[in-house]
């Protein structure tokens, strides 16, 4: 699988997939998509990068341990639920904020933060597993 | 007043916690200091006598679990007061005695703590009115007695005795819990004082009766569950004295007495209790003769006495119940006294074997007096409590019916055996020629003598003041069991014209005969036992070893470490769970009646599908065929991907883009990860399975598939409840500001679930990493000059 064509084209594919995954994640509230699918797409891109460049190289490119990313995801998902406690509502009541930026309105909300947390968890966990399966063997040998 | 009754049951536990501390501070006087607690309880309970005698039971309720309408209720009536006074009174003497008996023992503080906790559990047991509180204290007595019996935990025999007692009495505890729950279910009451005839009249009476009798018989060591009691002799002597006189084993007797008003009095009750009680009485009496160890002899007579009490409760007549109440107190007094005497003899002379003891009366005169007082009560001579108990027993059985005569004969034989054993215990060690003992015998310390002397004297004082005895003990005690007023007719006058007088004489004569022929009888009994070859004890061992072997076999069957078999087990379970309710239990008909199908063959038609839909189905079939035909694992995995992709396409075509999207991604990733796993596991490239395995796996897959399809068909044929979907459709935009309902449900309506799920995903990820790393690491780490940078990057 480690052909020169694949290795050349892989970074391009990965970049497109990562951007697409963010797009899918953010549009999820109104269109098909969401944090779970976005995370899966991003994790697939990391798997592809791992096949092309090797797991160690991919880890170095990521800079942060994938499992740490997953942990961060759980953290911000829980944190987004905690915010509502400050408004006097029960845990995980959604809060919406509409920012007026010139002509467009940008809706910000705690469900969105939550969905981003889901994205990170799925991305981090699956990427960690894929990288471990791809890499550890050659690393230990 | 109210709370103080609860305190009676709780104070000993507090004292138990403090006991090690007290022992550290007041080293030689720890027993004296801690005896203040049961002593205080005893005095407090004495003050309640007047109120109970004048006809009032004291009832206390404290909110326990208010949410479940559960109260910690206590009831002080004649029966529970008799038991509680005996427990706390003898308990005081036992604590004193233990302080001296285990003097200098490094764990005396711990021992006293166990003892006090045990006393608290027992007090709670007899005072409890709520059946759940009763159960709780009942189990506490089992646990604390386990600690006491196994106190000398370095000896294997002590550990075995403790475990045996715990296993047997806990089986009874479970039965008690079942019985309590059944009674609550039948009547709606937890309080025993609130029960009337509902249980006796219900269809489940037999079950309730079995449960309660099982509990009582295990606790009170009735034949054939008697064997744990002699083995409990491994406990230090003060424990035996307490366990055998006033507590633990009497718990079962108490339970039977307590349940008599609403459970007893039926044919089955009488028959079971009289038969088992009688058998235990004779078995225990004969067992005592078989032994030469003083402690073992006493233990066997305890069995006999418990059998006697159960028999009397079973008879249930006024005289029998009065005899049972008197006998309980008389037995508690003399048995505690005798055990304490035996402990003193063991302590001072160094042995407990009656064949090598003799003439101790000169060296230990006070101990001898204590032994004499107790033994005379056990024989049942006039001027002791034992006398009245015996008289009352015979009184109710003079009707002349054959059944009464049979019981009378059993009672006579049992009492005769007990009297004979009492003579042996009194005469052999203390009278006759002086025999050399391992230790040079001398008088025991006062703390060890107080018990037998006080109890012996109390037995005589109580027996002399007959009016007082009848008014404060017999009338309220028997009255509480029978549920009606009882009039005492105890008198010291001896009437030679009464047949009871001659029955007493016969008992004593029989006792003397047993005493004279003890050696012959012992030889005969031992020969009989040897001829029998097995005992209940060996059966217990066999059952326990069988249990261990069975669990081992079961573990090996279900947990043998081959993934293949695990998978087969899981999928076989799935197939059963799907097929059995649908086919075997007629579930298919319940969900979709055949009558409604009518002529199903006529309803069949070619599905109206678009060409591209046919195309997708064809693709799925091609994928399926490829999976089955693949001669290489990698190809099979890829072909499975084709299957999943076509399923995703079907989702897409039928209006579930979100699901299809996810399915695509999951499909891609699962193919990638499966392929990676396969390369790591270094499996054979080809799937080589013998034909049997192929057939087995194929059949399982087919059955599971058919089961899932059937289930889906049945579910789809029902009416879809759209209330929730309608709600979500209607409120998605106004409440959650989102048009994608699936996502709104995930992150908003059911966000809390999702939070739990992503936490699980991460935990699973960590687990997978741990598994992979443990596999990668060699069992013995080899020193290897690994490039440092790469390591770091990996971490």
From TrEMBL, chain A:
Membrane topology: Multi-pass membrane protein
This protein's name: Na(+)/H(+) antiporter subunit B
Organism: Devosia ginsengisoli
Ranges where the Na+/H+ antiporter MnhB subunit-related protein domain occurs: 5-127
Annotated TM spans: 12-29, 35-55, 67-92, 112-133
Family: Belongs to the CPA3 antiporters (TC 2.A.63) subunit B family.
Keyword Zinc: no
Superkingdom of origin organism: Bacteria
GO cellular component: plasma membrane
Entry-linked Pfam families: MnhB (PF04039)
Keywords of this entry: Cell membrane, Membrane, Transmembrane, Transmembrane helix
Subcellular location: Cell membrane
From TrEMBL, chain B:
Domain NADH:quinone oxidoreductase/Mrp antiporter transmembrane: 128-411
Residue stretches spanning the membrane: 6-22, 29-49, 74-96, 108-127, 133-151, 163-187, 199-218, 239-257, 269-289, 301-330, 366-385, 405-426, 446-469, 490-511, 531-551, 563-584, 612-630, 635-654, 660-679, 700-720, 754-772
Domain MrpA C-terminal/MbhE: 695-779
Entry's Gene Ontology molecular function annotations: antiporter activity
Record keywords: Antiport, Cell membrane, Ion transport, Membrane, Transmembrane, Transmembrane helix, Transport
Listed GO biological process terms: monoatomic ion transport
Compartments it resides in: Cell membrane; Membrane
Record-annotated NADH-Ubiquinone oxidoreductase (complex I) chain 5 N-terminal domain positions: 67-111
Record domain MrpA C-terminal/MbhD: where: 619-682
Topology within the bilayer: Multi-pass membrane protein
Main subcellular location: membrane
Top-level taxon: Bacteria
GO cellular component, one term: plasma membrane
Pfam families given in the database record: MbhD, MbhE, Proton_antipo_M, Proton_antipo_N
Protein name: DUF4040 domain-containing protein
């Amino acid at each position: 699988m480690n052909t020169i064509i694949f290795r050349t084209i892989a970074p391009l594919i990965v970049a497109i997939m990562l951007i697409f995954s963010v797009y899918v994640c953010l549009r999820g509230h109104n269109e098909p998509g969401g944090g779970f699918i976005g995370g899966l797409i991003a994790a697939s891109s990391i798997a592809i990068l791992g096949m092309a460049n090797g797991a160690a190289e991919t880890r170095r490119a990521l800079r942060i341990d994938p499992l740490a990313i997953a942990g961060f995801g759980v953290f911000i998902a829980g944190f987004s639920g905690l915010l509502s406690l400050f408004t006097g509502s029960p845990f995980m009541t959604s809060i919406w904020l509409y920012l007026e930026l010139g002509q467009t309105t940008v809706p910000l909300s705690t469900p969105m933060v939550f969905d981003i947390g889901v994205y990170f968890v799925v991305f981090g966990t699956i990427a960690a597993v894929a990288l471990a399966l791809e890499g550890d063997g050659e690393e230990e040998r | 007043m109210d709370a103080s009754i609860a305190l009676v049951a709780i104070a000993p536990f507090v004292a138990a916690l403090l006991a090690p501390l007290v022992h550290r501070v007041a080293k030689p006087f720890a027993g004296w200091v801690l005896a203040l607690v049961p002593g205080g309880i005893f005095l407090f309970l004495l003050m309640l006598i007047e109120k109970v005698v004048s006809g009032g039971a004291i009832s206390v309720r404290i909110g326990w679990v208010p949410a479940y309408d559960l109260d910690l209720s206590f009831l002080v009536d004649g029966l529970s007061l008799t038991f509680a006074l005996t427990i706390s009174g003898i308990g005081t003497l036992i604590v004193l005695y233990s302080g001296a008996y285990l003097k200098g023992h490094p764990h005396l503080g711990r021992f006293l703590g166990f003892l006090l906790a045990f006393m608290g559990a027992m007090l709670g047991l007899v005072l409890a009115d709520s059946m759940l509180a009763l159960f709780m204290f009942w189990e506490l007595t089992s646990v604390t007695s386990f600690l006491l019996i196994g106190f000398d935990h370095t000896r294997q025999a002590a550990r075995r005795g403790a475990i045996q007692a715990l296993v047997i009495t806990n089986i009874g505890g479970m039965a008690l819990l079942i019985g309590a729950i059944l009674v609550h279910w039948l009547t709606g009451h937890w309080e025993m004082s609130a029960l009337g005839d509902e249980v006796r009249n219900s269809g489940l009476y037999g079950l309730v009766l079995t449960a309660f009798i099982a509990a009582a018989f295990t606790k009170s060591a009735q034949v054939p569950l008697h064997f744990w009691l002699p083995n409990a002799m491994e406990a230090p002597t003060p424990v035996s004295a307490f366990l055998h006189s006033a507590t633990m084993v009497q718990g079962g007797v108490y339970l039977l007495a307590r349940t008599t008003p609403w459970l007893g009095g039926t044919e089955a009750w009488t028959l079971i209790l009289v038969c088992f009680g009688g058998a235990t009485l004779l078995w225990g009496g004969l067992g005592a003769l078989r032994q030469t160890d003083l402690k073992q002899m006493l233990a066997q007579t305890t069995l006999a006495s418990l059998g006697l009490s159960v028999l009397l409760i079973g008879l249930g007549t006024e005289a029998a119940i009065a005899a049972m109440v008197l006998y309980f107190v008389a037995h508690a007094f003399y048995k505690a006294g005798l055990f304490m005497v035996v402990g003193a003899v063991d302590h001072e002379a160094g042995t407990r074997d009656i064949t090598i003891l003799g003439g101790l009366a000169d060296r230990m005169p006070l101990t001898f007096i204590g032994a004499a007082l107790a033994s005379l009560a056990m024989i049942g001579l006039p001027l002791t409590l034992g006398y009245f108990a015996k008289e009352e027993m015979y009184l109710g059985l003079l009707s002349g019916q054959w059944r009464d005569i049979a019981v009378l004969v059993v009672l006579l034989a049992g009492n005769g055996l007990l009297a004979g054993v009492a003579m042996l215990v009194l005469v052999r060690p203390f009278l006759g020629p002086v025999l050399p003992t391992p230790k040079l015998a001398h008088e025991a310390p006062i703390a060890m003598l107080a018990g037998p002397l006080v109890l012996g004297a109390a037995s005589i004082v109580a027996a002399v003041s007959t009016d007082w005895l009848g008014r404060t003990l017999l009338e309220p005690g028997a009255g509480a069991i029978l549920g009606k007023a009882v009039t005492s007719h105890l008198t010291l006058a001896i009437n030679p014209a009464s047949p009871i007088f001659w029955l007493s004489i016969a008992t004593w004569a029989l006792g003397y005969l047993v005493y004279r022929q003890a050696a012959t009888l012992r030889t005969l009994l031992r020969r009989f036992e040897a001829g029998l070859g097995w005992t209940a004890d060996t059966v217990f061992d066999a059952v326990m070893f069988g249990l261990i072997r069975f669990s081992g076999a079961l573990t090996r069957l279900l947990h043998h470490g081959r993934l293949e078999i695990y998978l087969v087990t899981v999928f076989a379970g799935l197939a059963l769970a799907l097929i059995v309710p649908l086919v075997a239990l007629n579930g298919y008909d319940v969900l979709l009646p055949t009558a409604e199908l009518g002529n199903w063959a006529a309803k069949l038609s070619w599905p109206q599908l678009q060409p591209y839909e046919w195309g997708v189905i064809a693709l799925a079939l091609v994928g399926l065929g490829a999976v089955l035909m693949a001669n290489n694992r990698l190809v099979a995995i890829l072909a499975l991907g084709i299957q999943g992709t076509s399923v995703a396409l079907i989702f897409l075509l039928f209006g579930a883009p979100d699901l299809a999207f996810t399915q695509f991604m999951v499909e891609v990733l699962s193919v990638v990860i499966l392929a990676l796993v396969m390369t790591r596991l270094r499996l054979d490239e080809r799937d080589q399975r013998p034909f049997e395995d192929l057939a087995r796996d194929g059949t399982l897959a087919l059955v599971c598939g058919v089961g899932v399809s059937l289930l889906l068909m049945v579910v789809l044929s029902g009416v879809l409840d759209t209330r929730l979907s309608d709600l979500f459709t209607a409120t998605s935009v106004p409440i959650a500001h989102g048009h994608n309902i699936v996502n709104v449900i995930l992150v908003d309506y059911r966000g809390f679930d999702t939070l739990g799920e992503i936490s699980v995903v991460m935990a699973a990820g960590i687990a997978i990493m741990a598994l992979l790393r443990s596999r990668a690491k060699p069992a013995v780490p080899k020193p290897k000059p690994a490039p440092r940078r790469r390591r770091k990057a990996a971490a």
